[in-house]
Structures
1.
Amino acid sequence: MKKIVYCMTAVAFLLAFGLVQALNVSAVASQSSCPSWETQYEQLRTPPVGNKVITARHRGAFDGFLPENSMGAFVKAFQNCASAVETDVRKTADGQLVLFHDINIGKMLEPTYDPETNTGPNQRLSEITYAELSRKHLLRPNRQETHYVVPTVNELINYVIDNDVNSLIHLEIKDPTAILEVARLLRDHHQVNPNAHILKRVVIKFNMGEYPTPAQWKAALEKEGIVADYTLMPVIAPVTAQRINVGSEIPNPEELELTTNASRAVAHWGKAPMELAPIIEVVVKDSSEFLYTEPRTHSSFGNYAAPTKLSLDNVKKGTVAEFVALTHFYRKNLGAFVPVPDYGLFTKGPRAGFTVPNTFGDHTPIAVTDAFFNNDSSCCYAVEDRRYSTEIASEAHDWRINLDWQHSIGANILTADDTDSIEMYSQQHGYLNSVARPNPQPASKEMNSVLKLLAEGHSVPDSALVKIKGWNGASASTWGGQVCLWSDPGYYLWTIACSIERGGYSPVLEIHTVGKGKMLIRDPQSLQCLTADPAVSEVISWKDDCNHENAHWTRTPAHRFLDSNGREINFQWDDRYSYGYPFAYNFLSRGDTSTWSQWLLEPFDVDSNDPYK
């Protein structure tokens, strides 16, 4: 009996810290069944043929239990046979090289930080010592703590060597001062254990503006006394190109006459040996800078324009299109990032139907299915917010999530949070590198990946069934526990305990995003919508006209619903009773800061046709 009690206690402890999930990782796949790292390296250094796609798992195989950029997420990706794992390198205040995506730590390390209101502790990682950082635990998407701490670069490299990991590692260096420090660390590992071939297994990914040519990279190594043969991935974005263009003159390669420094920089990296630079990543968002394109209207990802050819005579000089063409001219792998909205990844939902804050432009709220966290931990932005027109790229669109468009420009090294959907789609269309990834697996339904929906031919949903709970989900015994908004077709919105017998009424409501930052709240039975009367504050009605502006609501970062006149849905003790429980008719108020006007959206998942499934 004592042994049974001890075992049960141990399991409870492991569950509390998320270790059971880490232990279960070994059940996903045996690493021995994965293509070897030597195979992955050969596929990378071989000039691409047919633009066969290889992926890199961004931030590891994180999920609802394993935090992003945690050792657990990396190990799971390795055992899932990821061709490569891409992670981010930053420096702490005392110079420790760590793996962390964001500039600030609130989203991933501070349970009391609220990304929507951007309130609570949210220090910059660069202002924290490693000792301070290691006392904080990484958070799951539901903001629960795990046992994982922010790993160091050294910890990951040691794991790769000690466990003979088959996946390659792409280290994206976010802090320019860390580039040579990472190079030195890898050199040191190579000197201690040359048979591990760590310089082939780890790709250093850096902003091309730091070292515009291989000669400048070599000179920087020589200055630091570093002698080693690295595997590199220079990245060029429009802002990088602008920086290179105003820098020191870069000579033309012998075989080409190029008009800008940036294009010459790409050419020099293109000429570099495949062993040094097998990949050039170009941040290109559409086909605007190609001279001749063809409209494509049958993609499940949406319409786009495909270049008629990817040669240098089909591009505007000095633009991202020329960078793409140069990469192909020199037969290098073209890298690209595929952005997948990450606000809803691995959350319990709702998966759609509501808006979240927008930190860009006029701050019009954005649909959750379009939402990305900012790298300062705050919520949120949409890719359309980050299009900037320059002489390098007009960025009239952002088509990067469109895998058909990515294939049309020849992008074949694709980094994303959802590499599973990229691999499945590429396999179905005949251009997955099956040597690097022979047995792709579909993304889990729990991921809530918009990319998965589009790749499988679904529309991105704009609605969800929910219970809308008062006090932001808190409860009160005098009210019978948690309270919900309830339908009453043709009459008024009311609030009562969520658990009462329904008697023809329902707390299950339908939320919809309707554009321009607005939402509607609808009774799925009567199809009536919650509607405010500009001249009335005492009650809120259920009415038939869901298209009227009075039926459209704005959700605030503090989880309040405002009508078109800026009044929030509220309630208070009303000394009324129904079914033996107190209830209140909802009213509209202004400027309330209490929890009585805060509403939690709790998913009510009964739809067997949910496309995420």
2.
Amino acid sequence: MRVSMVELGNVVRTKGGAIGSVTDWVDHGMRPGLFTIEWDESTCGGRVPARHWTRAEAAELTILS
């Protein structure tokens, strides 16, 4: 299931299969806000994705819940 709007509390997956939980959202006003994602390192295949994602970057994630 793909939804374009990531929200705080979602569990998400990257195209590479890494699974993580969205744990924080910070809105910086004029700059893009940032989501913080805590990744399950056992799903990352040796390369852990970035912890901070803009809304545009997060739109590429698949929302699992």
3.
Amino acid sequence: MRKQNKLILWPVYFDSTKTRADGRRVPKKFAISAPKLEELQLAAKQSGLQPEVVSDAAHPSSPWKKTGLLAVPKTEPKNETLKRVAEKLSKLRR
């Protein structure tokens, strides 16, 4: 699902139970176990992004699992956006 000037954030990017090979894209210290789409949306809002939720989307590596995704405006490189959202997400769980 390509969107012009949008970054796609999947919950698996922030899942501490996944390895980097399985799809995690943030450091383990910022990852959480079984992140929910609602938590991810809240963390993105707190990071100053305007997230667009697609709840029935499935990550390409697991098409049978409808985890949903967030589409956020591309204002910086994806890794920086991921790290910023991950920091807020880990603070929400504490």
4.
Amino acid sequence: MTAQKLYDEFRYQWFEPLADNYRELLYVNEADYAKQAYKILSWADIAKFSLVDRPSYSFYKNMEGDWKQNPKGGAGYLLVLISGIPYWTDAVGQIPFAVDTYRSKQSITKTVQTGIEWGTGTLTGNVDYSNEYDNYFVLRGALFASKSFTYKSKSSGQTYPAIVVEETYHPVNPLVLGEAINNNELMQYGIWKK
């Protein structure tokens, strides 16, 4: 069975235990010849790409923010290898979208809702309230962003805009992006399960 068939027909995944279609990862072929099947990255690479402030429209399919297709991201690969674990590229691609959306919405719940509504990256995409991994990866990105940025409103001293919002960046260890969503996070923010 090929990886493409696992992805297309079964939607199996091994990185979010609380999501549907979870199967425990038992073995990863570490031989050099197997590595050509992956784009090899680190969580620091994912964080670096995610922290670039982009216009929201850049996350549509095949645009600059579409991590799955961007040469600095998934580069069109089906799978990426991060810290020795393979991930579906479209799963990890939800993280930059979520970080950018959080910076706009400044709310984990609103970021997750936006991911449910726009996660396909198309204008005509379907709303996705499924318990599949993509919503979990939007939540991973939103949680990372909530730790990375704080916001403060203050008067501008002008009529328009009367209030300005200052964003402050706080470096966060990018390895947190590799942590699966836990039960508490799912109960608090997993609005697709409500």
